[in-house]
C-alpha cells in the first residue's frame, strides 16, 4: 500500500511526499529484515516471502531512481539504481531506468547501451523498446526508420501504448507528414487519458 501511495504521489507531481513515502517503505523493509534475523529461533520466513520482500525493495529503489532522475538529482538516482542492481543485477527495469538517467543527462549513446542490456535480458520489455526509439529520434534523422521499426514492434506488443504513438507522431512530423503526425498525437493523447497510473504487469 505504501508503494501504491508513493506511485500516486508521483502521478500527482508531489515528489517530496513520494520520496518520504519510499523512505518509510524501505525503513520498514529493513526493520522487518532485522527482526527476522534477530528471531533466528523462531520460524523463518518462507522463500516466497523473502522473494516478495526483495522484489518490493528493488521496486522501491527503482521508483526512487525514477523520481530523482525526473527532478535532476543524478547522483541520488545513481545510488538508488546501484541498490536495485545489488538486489537483482538482471532486472530489465533497473537497466531501463539507468537508460532514462543517461537520457536525462543527454548521454544518448550510454542510454542506448542501457536499453540494449534491458532488452537482452527481456527482449519484449516494452518501456525499453519505446525508449530506444525515443533516443534514436533525438540522435539524428538517419535513425528514423530504425526508430519507427522499434515503435511498430512496441505497438504489436501493446497497441494502447501512448508513448509509442507519441513518438510515431514525432517521426511523422520530422518527415513532414503533418496530418499523419496529428493523427498519431491525437491517438497518444486519448490513450494517455485512459492509461492506468501504475502498470498492472
Automatic annotation (TrEMBL):
Pfam families, A to Z: TPR_8
Keyword Disulfide bond applies: no
UniProt keyword terms in alphabetical order: TPR repeat
Protein name: Uncharacterized protein
Top-level taxon in the UniProt lineage: Eukaryota
InterPro entries from the UniProt entry: NPG1-like, TPR-like_helical_dom_sf, TPR_rpt
TPR repeats mapped onto the chain: 92-125
PANTHER family: PROTEIN NPG1, PROTEIN NPGR1
Amino acid at each position: 500500500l505504501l508503494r501504491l501511495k508513493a506511485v500516486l504521489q508521483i502521478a500527482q507531481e508531489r515528489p517530496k511526499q513520494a520520496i518520504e513515502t519510499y523512505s518509510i517503505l524501505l525503513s520498514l523493509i529493513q526493520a522487518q529484515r532485522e527482526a527476522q534475523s534477530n528471531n533466528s529461533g523462531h520460524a523463518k520466513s518462507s522463500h516466497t516471502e523473502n522473494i516478495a520482500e526483495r522484489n518490493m525493495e528493488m521496486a522501491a529503489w527503482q521508483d526512487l531512481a525514477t523520481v530523482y532522475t525526473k527532478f535532476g538529482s543524478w547522483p541520488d538516482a545513481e545510488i538508488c539504481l546501484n541498490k536495485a542492481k545489488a538486489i537483482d543485477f538482471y532486472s530489465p527495469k533497473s537497466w531501463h531506468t539507468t537508460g532514462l538517467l543517461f537520457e536525462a543527462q543527454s548521454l544518448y549513446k550510454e542510454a542506448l547501451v542501457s536499453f540494449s542490456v534491458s532488452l537482452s535480458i527481456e527482449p519484449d520489455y516494452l518501456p525499453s523498446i519505446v525508449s530506444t526509439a525515443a533516443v534514436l529520434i533525438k540522435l539524428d534523422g538517419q535513425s528514423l526508420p530504425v526508430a519507427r521499426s522499434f515503435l511498430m514492434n512496441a505497438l504489436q506488443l501493446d497497441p494502447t501504448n501512448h508513448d509509442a504513438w507519441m513518438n510515431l507522431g514525432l517521426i511523422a512530423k520530422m518527415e513532414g507528414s503533418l496530418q499523419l503526425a496529428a493523427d498519431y498525437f491525437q491517438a497518444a493523447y486519448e490513450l494517455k487519458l485512459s492509461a492506468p497510473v501504475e502498470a498492472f504487469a
